[in-house]
TrEMBL record:
<keyword id="KW-0472">Membrane</keyword>
<feature type="domain" description="ABC transporter">
    <location>
        <begin position="5"/>
        <end position="257"/>
    </location>
</feature>
<dbReference type="InterPro" id="IPR050388">
    <property type="entry name" value="ABC_Ni/Peptide_Import"/>
</dbReference>
<protein>
    <submittedName>
        <fullName>Dipeptide/oligopeptide/nickel ABC transporter ATP-binding protein</fullName>
    </submittedName>
</protein>
<comment type="similarity">
    <text>Belongs to the ABC transporter superfamily.</text>
</comment>
<dbReference type="GO" id="GO:0015833">
    <property type="term" value="P:peptide transport"/>
</dbReference>
<dbReference type="InterPro" id="IPR027417">
    <property type="entry name" value="P-loop_NTPase"/>
</dbReference>
<dbReference type="GO" id="GO:0005886">
    <property type="term" value="C:plasma membrane"/>
</dbReference>
<dbReference type="Pfam" id="PF08352">
    <property type="entry name" value="oligo_HPY"/>
</dbReference>
<keyword id="KW-0547">Nucleotide-binding</keyword>
<dbReference type="InterPro" id="IPR003593">
    <property type="entry name" value="AAA+_ATPase"/>
</dbReference>
<dbReference type="InterPro" id="IPR003439">
    <property type="entry name" value="ABC_transporter-like_ATP-bd"/>
</dbReference>
<dbReference type="GO" id="GO:0055085">
    <property type="term" value="P:transmembrane transport"/>
</dbReference>
<keyword id="KW-1003">Cell membrane</keyword>
<dbReference type="GO" id="GO:0005524">
    <property type="term" value="F:ATP binding"/>
</dbReference>
<keyword id="KW-0813">Transport</keyword>
<dbReference type="InterPro" id="IPR013563">
    <property type="entry name" value="Oligopep_ABC_C"/>
</dbReference>
Length: 290
């Protein structure tokens, strides 16, 4: 399979009042076309900033310094002109966030928001064509009465429905890459599970590659073909999901796994105190391993 996303030696630091803070220390990560890859690690380890760099957002943040290579579908995101990066967002790559109600615009109907997204790819698309395509997508995410939903505002829908709308909207332009940052964690556990199953089936059907960001190892195991484990801005382990789960090689991965039974509905996994073992070299599993 061809490589879609190829991140090499990615470094990030922020300049603030108290000097420079290094956040990413030379990350390398790749995703093949159609592959589902998870990035797991505790809060603050650098997962979301990687997604924001892939989307080309942090490159445009004054306090951020980004270096390294972010190859996407033959182009180089880091050195691209800002307006070329902007053109990729919502078309070739799209993003799903934790909390759908804060990501959807509360002042526009769902139909208007779909039309805006679709016209990023094709500005001449008629409203009737946008609505027809939106209805198709909403049907794919099992939303009942999709034609009526187009006239609704996000606040008129439940959190679970809004999350489905977000998924439908993220996929409506057939992006090559979907960045999913803790999708559904703002929802209750059973709705989250349903939503993830739906997302899994849809990306499989459309052949969309996914970078799935999570600190929930149980969810990652269900969803991803391959896993990267990140600890304090370093990738410490990488491999096929089954292999990493059956045979975790890095002390930090083992600590994350040991922490799983202590996950509560509300909380993050509790990872033990930092130990020198967590600074051990990266563990890379064979692609053929399981
Ligand atoms: N704009 C910013 N300015 C300064 N520091 C930032 C900025 N954005 C992120 N950081 C810092 O970068 C580090 C990584 O943040 P990031 O949001 O990627 O963590 P995360 O692994 O996604 O955590 P979570 O699971 O809680 O979302 C954190 O220490 C965070 O405080």
């Amino acid at each position: 399979m061809s490589t879609l996303l190829d991140i090499q030696d990615l470094r990030l630091s922020f300049k603030g009042l108290r000097g420079i803070t290094d956040v990413l220390h030379g990350i390398s990560l790749s995703i093949a076309a159609g592959e589902r890859v998870a990035l797991v690690g505790e809060s603050g380890s650098g997962k979301s900033v990687i997604a924001r760099i892939v989307l080309g957002l942090l490159q445009e943040t004054r306090s951020a310094r980004v270096s390294g290579k972010v190859g996407f579908d033959g182009a180089e995101i880091n050195t691209m002109r800002p307006r070329d990066r902007a053109k990729l967002r919502g078309t070739e790559m799209s993003m799903i966030f934790q909390d759908p109600t804060s990501s959807l615009n509360p002042t526009f109907t769902i139909g208007n928001q779909f039309a805006e997204v679709m016209r990023r790819r094709d500005p001449k698309l008629s409203r009737a064509a946008c609505d027809a395509r939106a209805i198709e997508m909403l049907t794919e995410v099992s939303i009942p009465n999709p034609d009526r939903i187009l006239e609704n505002y996000p606040f008129q829908l439940s959190g679970g429905m809004n999350q489905r709308v977000m998924i439908a909207m993220a996929l409506v332009n057939h992006p090559k890459l979907l960045l999913a940052d803790e999708p559904g964690t703002a929802l209750d556990v059973s709705v989250q599970a349903q939503t993830l199953r739906l997302m899994h089936d849809l990306v499989e059907k459309h052949g969309t590659a996914v970078l799935f960001i999570s600190h929930n190892l149980g969810v990652v195991r269900e969803f991803a073909d391959r896993v990267y484990v990140i600890y304090r801005g370093n990738i410490v382990e990488e491999g096929p999901t089954a292999s990493v789960f059956h045979n975790p090689g890095h002390a930090y991965t083992r600590a994350l796994m040991d922490a799983v039974p202590r996950i509560t509905g509300a909380g993050l996994p509790e990872v033990p105190e930092v130990s020198d073992a967590f600074l051990a070299p990266m563990v890379r599993h064979d692609r053929g391993a399981a």
